[in-house]
Design brief:
- 2 copies of one chain form a homodimer.
- Chain A has helices at about 15-45, 50-60, 65-70, 75-90, 110-130, 140-155, and strands at about 65, 95, 105-110.
- By secondary structure, the first copy, chain A, is mainly α.
- The first copy, chain A, has one domain (about 30-155): Winged helix-like DNA-binding domain superfamily/Winged helix DNA-binding domain (Arc Repressor Mutant, subunit A, Orthogonal Bundle), CATH 1.10.10.
- In chain A, strands 1-3-2 form a 3-stranded antiparallel β-sheet.
- In chain A, helix 1 crosses helix 5 (about 110-130).
- The first copy, chain A, is globular, with a radius of gyration of 20 Å.
- At the A-B interface, helix 1, helix 2, helix 5 and helix 6 of A face helix 1, helix 2, helix 5 and helix 6 of B.
- Chain A binds a DNA duplex through helix 4.
- Chains A, B: This is Transcriptional regulator, MarR family.
- Chains A, B: It comes from Glycomyces sambucus.
- Chains A, B: One of its GO terms (molecular function) is DNA-binding transcription factor activity.
Amino acid sequence: MTGPDDFDLGDLKLPEPQQLEAYFALTEAVSLLQHHVEQQLRAEGGISTVQFQLLMALNGAGQLTMTQLADGVVYSRSGLTYQAALLEKAGLVTRGPSPDDERATLVAITDKGRETVGRVLPGHIQVTRRLLYEAVSAEDLNRLRGIMSRVRDHIREEPPRSAAPRRKRTF
Amino acid sequence: MTGPDDFDLGDLKLPEPQQLEAYFALTEAVSLLQHHVEQQLRAEGGISTVQFQLLMALNGAGQLTMTQLADGVVYSRSGLTYQAALLEKAGLVTRGPSPDDERATLVAITDKGRETVGRVLPGHIQVTRRLLYEAVSAEDLNRLRGIMSRVRDHIREEPPRSAAPRRKRTF
DNA sequence: TATTGTTATACTCTATAACTATA
DNA sequence: TATAGTTATAGAGTATAACAATA
Protein backbone atom coordinates (compact mmCIF):
# COMPACT_ATOMS: atom_id res chain seq x y z
CA MET A 1 0.00 0.00 0.00
CA THR A 2 1.24 3.45 -0.80
CA GLY A 3 0.45 6.80 0.74
CA PRO A 4 -2.71 8.72 0.09
CA ASP A 5 -0.80 11.80 -1.05
CA ASP A 6 -2.62 12.37 -4.29
CA PHE A 7 -6.19 12.68 -3.09
CA ASP A 8 -8.39 15.63 -2.52
CA LEU A 9 -9.24 14.99 1.04
CA GLY A 10 -10.66 18.40 1.79
CA ASP A 11 -10.10 19.49 5.34
CA LEU A 12 -9.23 16.05 6.57
CA LYS A 13 -6.15 16.12 8.71
CA LEU A 14 -3.90 13.51 7.23
CA PRO A 15 -1.97 11.19 9.50
CA GLU A 16 1.75 11.58 9.48
CA PRO A 17 3.53 9.05 7.31
CA GLN A 18 4.94 7.53 10.47
CA GLN A 19 1.46 7.01 11.82
CA LEU A 20 0.40 5.28 8.65
CA GLU A 21 3.50 3.15 8.73
CA ALA A 22 2.72 2.06 12.26
CA TYR A 23 -0.80 1.12 11.24
CA PHE A 24 0.27 -0.79 8.15
CA ALA A 25 3.09 -2.61 9.90
CA LEU A 26 0.77 -3.51 12.73
CA THR A 27 -2.02 -4.97 10.62
CA GLU A 28 0.29 -6.68 8.17
CA ALA A 29 2.47 -8.31 10.82
CA VAL A 30 -0.56 -9.58 12.69
CA SER A 31 -2.11 -10.92 9.49
CA LEU A 32 1.03 -12.87 8.74
CA LEU A 33 1.24 -14.11 12.31
CA GLN A 34 -2.39 -15.22 12.34
CA HIS A 35 -1.90 -17.03 9.08
CA HIS A 36 0.94 -19.09 10.48
CA VAL A 37 -0.98 -19.77 13.67
CA GLU A 38 -3.98 -20.94 11.69
CA GLN A 39 -1.79 -23.37 9.76
CA GLN A 40 -0.34 -24.82 12.93
CA LEU A 41 -3.68 -25.25 14.69
CA ARG A 42 -5.19 -26.90 11.64
CA ALA A 43 -2.25 -29.19 11.11
CA GLU A 44 -1.78 -30.34 14.69
CA GLY A 45 -5.28 -30.16 16.11
CA GLY A 46 -7.66 -29.96 13.18
CA ILE A 47 -9.20 -26.84 14.66
CA SER A 48 -9.57 -23.24 13.55
CA THR A 49 -8.39 -20.20 15.43
CA VAL A 50 -11.90 -19.39 16.60
CA GLN A 51 -12.36 -22.93 17.87
CA PHE A 52 -9.03 -22.74 19.64
CA GLN A 53 -10.06 -19.52 21.33
CA LEU A 54 -13.31 -21.05 22.46
CA LEU A 55 -11.55 -24.12 23.81
CA MET A 56 -9.03 -21.96 25.62
CA ALA A 57 -11.79 -19.97 27.27
CA LEU A 58 -13.53 -23.17 28.32
CA ASN A 59 -10.30 -24.76 29.42
CA GLY A 60 -9.89 -22.02 31.97
CA ALA A 61 -13.48 -21.75 33.12
CA GLY A 62 -14.59 -25.36 32.74
CA GLN A 63 -18.01 -24.35 31.55
CA LEU A 64 -19.64 -21.17 30.31
CA THR A 65 -22.96 -20.07 28.91
CA MET A 66 -23.15 -19.19 25.24
CA THR A 67 -23.36 -15.52 26.10
CA GLN A 68 -20.32 -15.67 28.35
CA LEU A 69 -18.50 -17.53 25.62
CA ALA A 70 -19.47 -14.92 23.07
CA ASP A 71 -17.90 -12.16 25.13
CA GLY A 72 -14.31 -11.80 24.05
CA VAL A 73 -14.93 -13.46 20.74
CA VAL A 74 -16.59 -10.81 18.62
CA TYR A 75 -19.25 -12.88 17.07
CA SER A 76 -22.87 -13.18 16.10
CA ARG A 77 -24.97 -15.50 18.25
CA SER A 78 -25.73 -17.75 15.32
CA GLY A 79 -22.06 -17.96 14.45
CA LEU A 80 -21.29 -19.12 17.93
CA THR A 81 -24.07 -21.69 17.80
CA TYR A 82 -22.53 -22.99 14.59
CA GLN A 83 -19.07 -23.31 16.09
CA ALA A 84 -20.36 -24.82 19.32
CA ALA A 85 -22.25 -27.40 17.30
CA LEU A 86 -19.06 -28.31 15.44
CA LEU A 87 -17.11 -28.63 18.68
CA GLU A 88 -19.87 -30.77 20.17
CA LYS A 89 -19.99 -33.03 17.14
CA ALA A 90 -16.23 -33.47 17.44
CA GLY A 91 -16.66 -34.43 21.09
CA LEU A 92 -14.62 -31.54 22.41
CA VAL A 93 -17.46 -29.90 24.33
CA THR A 94 -20.91 -30.81 25.61
CA ARG A 95 -23.97 -28.61 25.70
CA GLY A 96 -26.74 -28.73 28.25
CA PRO A 97 -29.32 -26.59 30.01
CA SER A 98 -28.27 -24.36 32.87
CA PRO A 99 -29.80 -25.03 36.29
CA ASP A 100 -29.69 -21.31 37.13
CA ASP A 101 -31.40 -19.99 34.04
CA GLU A 102 -33.51 -22.30 31.94
CA ARG A 103 -32.95 -20.14 28.90
CA ALA A 104 -29.20 -20.50 28.98
CA THR A 105 -27.06 -23.23 27.45
CA LEU A 106 -24.05 -24.37 29.42
CA VAL A 107 -21.08 -25.33 27.30
CA ALA A 108 -18.56 -27.55 29.04
CA ILE A 109 -15.19 -28.76 27.81
CA THR A 110 -14.67 -32.52 27.71
CA ASP A 111 -11.55 -34.53 28.47
CA LYS A 112 -11.06 -34.89 24.76
CA GLY A 113 -11.33 -31.14 24.46
CA ARG A 114 -8.67 -30.61 27.09
CA GLU A 115 -6.54 -33.21 25.41
CA THR A 116 -6.82 -31.33 22.15
CA VAL A 117 -5.79 -28.09 23.79
CA GLY A 118 -2.83 -29.82 25.38
CA ARG A 119 -1.83 -31.29 22.05
CA VAL A 120 -2.05 -28.04 20.16
CA LEU A 121 -0.70 -25.57 22.66
CA PRO A 122 3.01 -26.48 22.50
CA GLY A 123 3.11 -25.90 18.77
CA HIS A 124 1.12 -22.74 19.19
CA ILE A 125 3.64 -21.43 21.66
CA GLN A 126 6.49 -22.48 19.42
CA VAL A 127 5.05 -20.55 16.50
CA THR A 128 4.49 -17.39 18.47
CA ARG A 129 7.96 -17.63 19.95
CA ARG A 130 9.58 -18.13 16.59
CA LEU A 131 7.64 -15.41 14.83
CA LEU A 132 6.99 -12.85 17.53
CA TYR A 133 9.09 -13.20 20.64
CA GLU A 134 12.33 -13.88 18.83
CA ALA A 135 11.98 -10.72 16.79
CA VAL A 136 11.43 -8.45 19.77
CA SER A 137 13.65 -7.69 22.74
CA ALA A 138 12.25 -8.27 26.21
CA GLU A 139 12.08 -4.55 26.73
CA ASP A 140 10.22 -3.91 23.51
CA LEU A 141 7.86 -6.78 24.17
CA ASN A 142 7.00 -5.19 27.45
CA ARG A 143 6.33 -1.89 25.72
CA LEU A 144 4.27 -3.64 23.11
CA ARG A 145 2.19 -5.27 25.80
CA GLY A 146 1.49 -1.92 27.43
CA ILE A 147 0.67 -0.15 24.20
CA MET A 148 -1.61 -2.80 22.75
CA SER A 149 -3.39 -3.38 26.04
CA ARG A 150 -4.24 0.28 26.06
CA VAL A 151 -5.40 0.17 22.45
CA ARG A 152 -7.53 -2.90 23.11
CA ASP A 153 -9.21 -1.30 26.11
CA HIS A 154 -9.71 1.91 24.18
CA ILE A 155 -11.47 0.16 21.31
CA ARG A 156 -13.52 -1.90 23.73
CA GLU A 157 -14.94 1.30 25.18
CA GLU A 158 -16.23 2.34 21.78
CA PRO A 159 -19.98 2.77 21.36
CA PRO A 160 -21.64 -0.28 19.82
CA ARG A 161 -21.42 -0.60 16.06
CA SER A 162 -25.16 -0.29 15.72
CA ALA A 163 -24.50 3.44 15.53
CA ALA A 164 -22.89 3.02 12.13
CA PRO A 165 -25.21 3.37 9.13
CA ARG A 166 -25.42 0.44 6.77
CA ARG A 167 -25.21 0.73 3.05
CA LYS A 168 -25.65 -2.00 0.49
CA ARG A 169 -22.53 -3.26 -1.11
CA THR A 170 -22.12 -2.40 -4.76
CA PHE A 171 -21.29 -5.95 -5.73
CA MET B 1 -8.35 -16.57 27.28
CA THR B 2 -6.64 -17.75 30.40
CA GLY B 3 -3.15 -18.99 30.99
CA PRO B 4 -1.96 -22.46 30.13
CA ASP B 5 -0.78 -23.11 33.66
CA ASP B 6 -2.52 -26.40 34.14
CA PHE B 7 -1.10 -28.41 31.26
CA ASP B 8 1.56 -31.00 31.12
CA LEU B 9 3.74 -29.46 28.54
CA GLY B 10 6.73 -31.62 29.10
CA ASP B 11 9.97 -29.83 28.46
CA LEU B 12 8.39 -26.96 26.58
CA LYS B 13 9.69 -23.67 27.82
CA LEU B 14 6.60 -21.69 28.62
CA PRO B 15 6.43 -18.04 27.68
CA GLU B 16 6.38 -15.61 30.51
CA PRO B 17 2.91 -14.35 31.39
CA GLN B 18 3.97 -10.96 30.11
CA GLN B 19 4.87 -12.44 26.75
CA LEU B 20 1.50 -14.11 26.51
CA GLU B 21 -0.21 -10.91 27.48
CA ALA B 22 1.60 -9.05 24.74
CA TYR B 23 0.54 -11.64 22.20
CA PHE B 24 -3.08 -11.70 23.32
CA ALA B 25 -3.38 -7.92 23.53
CA LEU B 26 -1.81 -7.61 20.11
CA THR B 27 -4.07 -10.03 18.31
CA GLU B 28 -7.20 -8.97 20.11
CA ALA B 29 -6.67 -5.26 19.55
CA VAL B 30 -5.98 -5.78 15.88
CA SER B 31 -9.03 -8.00 15.50
CA LEU B 32 -11.22 -5.31 17.00
CA LEU B 33 -9.58 -2.66 14.85
CA GLN B 34 -10.01 -4.67 11.68
CA HIS B 35 -13.64 -5.28 12.50
CA HIS B 36 -14.35 -1.57 12.74
CA VAL B 37 -12.40 -0.86 9.59
CA GLU B 38 -14.34 -3.52 7.71
CA GLN B 39 -17.62 -1.92 8.80
CA GLN B 40 -16.52 1.48 7.60
CA LEU B 41 -15.27 0.30 4.23
CA ARG B 42 -18.44 -1.67 3.63
CA ALA B 43 -20.70 1.18 4.68
CA GLU B 44 -19.00 3.99 2.77
CA GLY B 45 -17.55 2.20 -0.22
CA GLY B 46 -19.28 -1.13 -0.49
CA ILE B 47 -15.90 -2.88 -0.53
CA SER B 48 -14.15 -5.39 1.68
CA THR B 49 -10.79 -4.93 3.33
CA VAL B 50 -9.08 -7.13 0.78
CA GLN B 51 -10.62 -5.14 -2.05
CA PHE B 52 -9.52 -1.92 -0.39
CA GLN B 53 -5.97 -3.22 -0.11
CA LEU B 54 -5.95 -4.18 -3.77
CA LEU B 55 -7.30 -0.79 -4.79
CA MET B 56 -4.73 0.97 -2.62
CA ALA B 57 -1.93 -0.99 -4.24
CA LEU B 58 -3.25 -0.16 -7.70
CA ASN B 59 -3.86 3.44 -6.78
CA GLY B 60 -0.16 3.84 -6.14
CA ALA B 61 1.15 1.84 -9.04
CA GLY B 62 -1.55 2.50 -11.64
CA GLN B 63 -1.38 -1.03 -12.94
CA LEU B 64 0.12 -4.30 -11.82
CA THR B 65 0.17 -7.88 -12.92
CA MET B 66 -1.79 -10.41 -10.94
CA THR B 67 1.41 -11.80 -9.46
CA GLN B 68 2.63 -8.39 -8.39
CA LEU B 69 -0.76 -7.72 -6.90
CA ALA B 70 -0.68 -10.99 -5.00
CA ASP B 71 2.58 -10.03 -3.32
CA GLY B 72 1.75 -8.30 -0.09
CA VAL B 73 -1.71 -9.73 0.04
CA VAL B 74 -1.25 -13.27 1.30
CA TYR B 75 -3.53 -15.01 -1.06
CA SER B 76 -4.09 -17.93 -3.34
CA ARG B 77 -4.00 -17.17 -7.05
CA SER B 78 -7.57 -18.27 -7.51
CA GLY B 79 -8.68 -16.07 -4.65
CA LEU B 80 -7.08 -13.10 -6.31
CA THR B 81 -8.72 -13.94 -9.62
CA TYR B 82 -12.04 -14.02 -7.81
CA GLN B 83 -11.52 -10.62 -6.20
CA ALA B 84 -10.18 -9.07 -9.39
CA ALA B 85 -13.25 -10.31 -11.24
CA LEU B 86 -15.49 -8.65 -8.66
CA LEU B 87 -13.59 -5.39 -8.89
CA GLU B 88 -13.77 -5.52 -12.67
CA LYS B 89 -17.50 -6.19 -12.63
CA ALA B 90 -17.92 -3.19 -10.37
CA GLY B 91 -15.97 -1.06 -12.84
CA LEU B 92 -13.19 -0.27 -10.39
CA VAL B 93 -10.43 -1.98 -12.37
CA THR B 94 -9.84 -3.28 -15.88
CA ARG B 95 -7.97 -6.40 -16.87
CA GLY B 96 -6.02 -6.91 -20.02
CA PRO B 97 -3.04 -8.73 -21.50
CA SER B 98 0.45 -7.47 -20.80
CA PRO B 99 2.57 -6.39 -23.79
CA ASP B 100 5.73 -7.57 -22.05
CA ASP B 101 4.58 -11.04 -21.14
CA GLU B 102 1.67 -12.60 -22.95
CA ARG B 103 0.97 -14.87 -20.01
CA ALA B 104 0.48 -12.00 -17.58
CA THR B 105 -2.71 -10.09 -16.90
CA LEU B 106 -2.37 -6.39 -16.28
CA VAL B 107 -4.82 -5.02 -13.76
CA ALA B 108 -5.35 -1.27 -13.97
CA ILE B 109 -7.35 0.98 -11.70
CA THR B 110 -10.12 3.03 -13.34
CA ASP B 111 -11.26 6.57 -12.59
CA LYS B 112 -14.18 5.08 -10.77
CA GLY B 113 -11.78 2.98 -8.79
CA ARG B 114 -9.76 6.02 -7.79
CA GLU B 115 -12.96 7.82 -6.94
CA THR B 116 -13.94 4.97 -4.65
CA VAL B 117 -10.60 5.08 -2.89
CA GLY B 118 -10.97 8.82 -2.46
CA ARG B 119 -14.44 8.41 -1.06
CA VAL B 120 -13.49 5.70 1.40
CA LEU B 121 -10.12 6.88 2.58
CA PRO B 122 -11.21 9.82 4.79
CA GLY B 123 -13.45 7.59 6.84
CA HIS B 124 -10.77 4.97 6.97
CA ILE B 125 -8.33 7.49 8.36
CA GLN B 126 -10.91 8.74 10.82
CA VAL B 127 -11.50 5.26 12.16
CA THR B 128 -7.83 4.49 12.60
CA ARG B 129 -7.26 7.84 14.25
CA ARG B 130 -10.14 7.38 16.63
CA LEU B 131 -9.29 3.81 17.54
CA LEU B 132 -5.53 3.66 17.27
CA TYR B 133 -3.77 7.00 17.15
CA GLU B 134 -5.82 8.57 19.89
CA ALA B 135 -5.01 5.76 22.29
CA VAL B 136 -1.26 5.97 21.78
CA SER B 137 1.17 8.79 22.43
CA ALA B 138 3.35 9.99 19.57
CA GLU B 139 6.35 8.46 21.23
CA ASP B 140 4.68 5.08 21.70
CA LEU B 141 3.34 5.11 18.18
CA ASN B 142 6.85 5.56 16.95
CA ARG B 143 8.01 2.64 19.07
CA LEU B 144 5.10 0.57 17.82
CA ARG B 145 6.07 1.33 14.25
CA GLY B 146 9.62 0.19 14.86
CA ILE B 147 8.67 -2.95 16.69
CA MET B 148 5.99 -4.14 14.30
CA SER B 149 8.06 -3.32 11.24
CA ARG B 150 10.72 -5.59 12.62
CA VAL B 151 8.20 -8.32 13.37
CA ARG B 152 6.71 -8.06 9.90
CA ASP B 153 10.10 -8.32 8.23
CA HIS B 154 11.04 -11.19 10.48
CA ILE B 155 7.94 -13.18 9.59
CA ARG B 156 8.39 -12.38 5.92
CA GLU B 157 11.79 -14.02 6.02
CA GLU B 158 10.26 -17.27 7.20
CA PRO B 159 10.61 -20.32 4.99
CA PRO B 160 7.53 -20.89 2.84
CA ARG B 161 4.59 -22.56 4.53
CA SER B 162 4.90 -25.56 2.24
CA ALA B 163 7.35 -26.86 4.82
CA ALA B 164 4.50 -27.38 7.27
CA PRO B 165 2.87 -30.79 7.16
CA ARG B 166 -0.83 -30.88 6.42
CA ARG B 167 -3.28 -32.93 8.36
CA LYS B 168 -6.95 -33.42 7.71
CA ARG B 169 -9.28 -31.56 9.97
CA THR B 170 -11.28 -33.70 12.36
CA PHE B 171 -14.55 -31.99 11.49
C1' DT C 1 9.47 -27.60 -18.13
C1' DA C 2 8.25 -23.67 -15.46
C1' DT C 3 5.29 -19.81 -14.96
C1' DT C 4 0.89 -17.01 -15.33
C1' DG C 5 -3.57 -17.01 -14.74
C1' DT C 6 -8.44 -18.97 -14.95
C1' DT C 7 -12.14 -22.23 -14.00
C1' DA C 8 -14.75 -25.71 -11.59
C1' DT C 9 -15.84 -27.21 -7.39
C1' DA C 10 -16.46 -27.91 -2.71
C1' DC C 11 -16.39 -26.22 1.76
C1' DT C 12 -15.99 -22.98 5.67
C1' DC C 13 -17.63 -19.31 7.74
C1' DT C 14 -20.56 -15.39 8.92
C1' DA C 15 -24.68 -12.64 9.21
C1' DT C 16 -29.79 -11.71 9.10
C1' DA C 17 -34.28 -12.75 10.20
C1' DA C 18 -37.71 -15.58 12.06
C1' DC C 19 -38.68 -18.46 15.70
C1' DT C 20 -39.08 -20.85 20.50
C1' DA C 21 -38.79 -20.67 25.26
C1' DT C 22 -37.85 -18.67 29.59
C1' DA C 23 -37.27 -14.36 32.89
C1' DT D 1 -41.23 -7.13 27.03
C1' DA D 2 -36.61 -8.51 27.16
C1' DT D 3 -33.21 -12.05 26.99
C1' DA D 4 -30.93 -16.72 25.54
C1' DG D 5 -30.35 -19.54 22.06
C1' DT D 6 -31.42 -22.14 17.65
C1' DT D 7 -32.59 -22.72 12.83
C1' DA D 8 -33.08 -21.70 8.05
C1' DT D 9 -31.06 -19.53 4.58
C1' DA D 10 -28.26 -17.03 1.73
C1' DG D 11 -23.99 -15.04 0.40
C1' DA D 12 -19.00 -14.07 0.69
C1' DG D 13 -14.71 -15.83 0.71
C1' DT D 14 -11.02 -19.29 0.30
C1' DA D 15 -8.43 -23.24 -1.21
C1' DT D 16 -7.35 -27.26 -4.29
C1' DA D 17 -6.86 -29.35 -8.47
C1' DA D 18 -7.20 -29.49 -13.27
C1' DC D 19 -6.56 -26.80 -17.11
C1' DA D 20 -4.82 -23.60 -21.12
C1' DA D 21 -1.41 -20.64 -22.83
C1' DT D 22 2.99 -18.58 -22.99
C1' DA D 23 8.22 -18.28 -21.69
